[in-house]
Structure formats: structure tokens, C-alpha cells
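We were asked to recover a plausible sequence for a given structure. The inputs and outputs are reproduced exactly as logged, with field labels preserved.

PROBLEM: sequence recovery
POSITIONS: 258
GIVEN STRUCTURE:
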């Protein structure tokens, strides 16, 4: 089914917007102001330019929703959008969330899944409600979390599932919407900050490994002698090398990228 859709998000799950553009009429992109490092919006903006629909980095307002309804928009899809979206019964809204809801409510469940050594995670498409990540579930897919999973590889798995889920959503939207299932009880998890997981010479190597993988491609902090170092990509090693390393208890951090 070809639908008129608005999209809210940045490049984290760009694969959703790519799929929507292929099979639907995307009317507008609402993206976010980003840091330009781990979080970027250049990909979704490039899609807006390629397909010729407008975009903005200004927060969605009730007036924006009014305009979408008046222009015939049938669905708003969000994926990784920072800001609260004003819900409106006139416009169905769904969110694509990188966890198996109701577990993992919150803005950044991916690192927490790795820090908690969960055996699996997944992607959930759910109705947007006033409270974040609480709406009824339309679609959900699972994947195994590998022993050496990193934030980067985790998101590769997420984005491998999202296009087919997005296609399924628009192909059979009304049935999925009408038959969405309540989540049940869940816990909202605040965004983990790397400052809460600072490593040092005294850090347990198993813990250091989980932290490095959970924030891989974002950054981990390491403290030594009062100095604080930022590691964008690092891995645990038990051998001394000629490359840049930081010591932890009985092991080393190999610095791949700072």
C-alpha cells in the first residue's frame, strides 16, 4: 500500500526512511540537530533532497501536525527522534525502537543490552503515546546478541531488520494498527552516559570489555593520574603491544580510534 508519510529521525535508523521512500510518498522530514560524530543527519537529509521533500531540524509542534493532517498525511513514522512528538488522534503515529519492548524503554537501550549481557534484543514498531515507548506493538523482530557484540554491530543488525519491517508496516497498515498488542509492564531506562562507566587501571577486564563494546563508535572514558582520555573505539587485549594501550587490571585496552 502506497501511503503519504512524514518521518522523524536522524541517521541512526536511516534504513527506515530509505524503505519508506522506495514505496511511499514521504511528505516531510523532521530531523534533529546532531553532534556530527556518532550522531549524524546527513544521510536522511540527502534522501530528502534526492526525493524532493522538505526537511527541518526544528522540533515538531502541534501546528506541524495540523499542517500534515490538512495536506493528507496518513502516518508519521519516527525512528531515533530526540524530541517528544505531540500525539493527535487525527494522525496515526508509530515509533521504531531498537529493543524488545517493554524491555528497554528509553532513548538508548542498545548499550544497556550489551552492558547487561542480554542474550537477545530486537526491533519494535509501536504506537506513539504521550509516555515514551509505551504504545501498543504492531511489529517486533528478534536477533541474538553475539558474545563480542559492539554498539556498531548491534546497530548493523537493527538496520538489517528495519527495511522489511517498514515495508510490512505500510503494506498492511490498517490491520496491524487495529490489532496492535498492549505492551504490559515495563521500565523506562535513562540514557547511559559514558561518564557513568569510566575505566581505569583498577577496572575488572570483563567489565572493561563490556563497556568498550557497549560504547564502541561513540566513546568510552579512561582516567589515569587525574587525566581523562576519550576512546572512540577500543578493544580488550591480554598482551602488551607496540600500539597505543591503556592498562586495566591484568589486561590492556587497545586503542583503535580516539
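RECOVERED SEQUENCE:
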Amino acid at each position: 500500500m502506497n501511503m503519504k508519510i512524514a518521518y522523524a529521525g536522524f541517521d541512526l535508523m536511516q534504513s527506515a526512511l530509505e524503505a519508506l521512500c522506495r514505496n511511499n510518498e514521504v511528505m516531510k522530514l523532521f530531523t534533529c540537530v546532531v553532534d556530527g560524530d556518532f550522531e549524524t543527519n546527513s544521510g536522511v537529509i540527502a534522501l530528502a533532497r534526492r526525493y524532493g521533500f522538505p526537511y527541518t531540524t526544528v522540533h515538531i509542534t502541534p501546528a506541524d501536525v495540523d499542517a500534515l493532517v490538512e495536506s493528507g498525511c496518513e502516518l508519521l513514522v519516527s525512528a531515533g527522534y530526540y524530541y517528544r512528538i505531540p500525539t493527535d488522534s487525527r494522525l496515526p503515529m508509530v515509533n521504531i525502537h531498537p529493543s524488545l519492548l517493554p524491555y528497554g524503554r528509553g532513548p538508548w537501550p542498545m548499550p544497556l543490552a550489551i552492558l547487561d549481557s542480554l542474550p537477545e534484543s530486537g526491533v519494535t514498531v509501536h504506537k506513539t503515546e504521550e509516555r515514551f515507548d509505551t504504545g501498543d506493538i504492531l511489529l517486533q523482530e528478534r536477533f541474538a546478541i553475539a558474545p563480542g557484540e559492539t554498539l556498531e554491530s548491534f546497530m548493523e543488525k537493527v538496520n538489517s531488520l528495519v527495511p522489511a519491517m517498514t515495508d510490512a508496516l505500510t503494506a498492511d497498515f490498517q490491520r496491524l494498527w487495529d490489532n496492535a498488542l498492549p505492551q504490559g509492564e515495563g521500565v523506562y531506562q535513562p540514557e547511559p552516559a559514558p561518564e557513568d562507566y569510566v575505566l581505569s587501571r583498577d577496572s575488572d577486564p570483563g567489565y572493561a570489555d563490556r563497556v568498550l563494546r557497549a560504547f564502541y563508535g561513540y566513546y568510552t572514558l579512561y582516567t589515569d593520574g587525574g587525566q581523562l582520555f576519550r576512546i572512540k573505539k577500543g578493544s580488550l587485549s591480554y598482551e602488551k603491544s607496540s600500539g597505543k594501550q591503556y592498562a586495566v587490571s591484568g589486561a590492556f585496552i587497545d586503542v583503535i580510534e580516539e
